[in-house]
Q: What sequence folds into this?
């Protein structure tokens, strides 16, 4: 009986708290890799996230698109103000081919975050 109580206590002590679980779901921003923005196709080396950032080039519309694994993630801003920041983030799986497109943006930065569980 003492062995069973000890085992149960060890299991209770080792469980993940809700705060730890939420923290582990965050992208690890300390492990980002910049991706050459001249490329429109990227293959993810590991599970993670792709983030595309840019600033509106002029007053008018701008757009960022990320397509991966049959899913599309888009941000379209119409009547945006010059130099307003635009950002789109999409989850990717290892080996997945990702298509990146931008319209009417400057200062484009594309990053790959290779892992989950960080700050």
A:
């Amino acid at each position: 009986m003492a062995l069973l109580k000890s085992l149960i206590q060890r299991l209770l002590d080792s469980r993940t708290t809700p705060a730890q679980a939420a923290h582990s779901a965050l992208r690890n921003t300390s492990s980002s890799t910049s991706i050459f923005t001249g490329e429109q196709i990227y293959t993810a080396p590991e599970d993670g996230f792709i983030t595309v950032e840019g600033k509106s080039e002029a007053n008018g519309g701008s757009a960022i698109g990320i397509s991966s694994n049959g899913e599309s993630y888009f941000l379209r801003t119409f009547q945006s103000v010059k130099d307003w920041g635009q950002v789109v983030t999409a989850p990717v799986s290892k080996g997945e081919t990702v298509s990146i497109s931008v319209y009417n943006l400057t200062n484009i930065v594309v990053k790959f975050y290779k892992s989950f569980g960080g700050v």
About this structure: The chain has a mean pLDDT of 75. The radius of gyration is 20 Å. The CA atoms of residues 49 and 91 lie 4 Å apart. Strands lie at 32-35, 41-43, 48-56, 60-68, 71-80, 85-92, 97-103, 105-113.
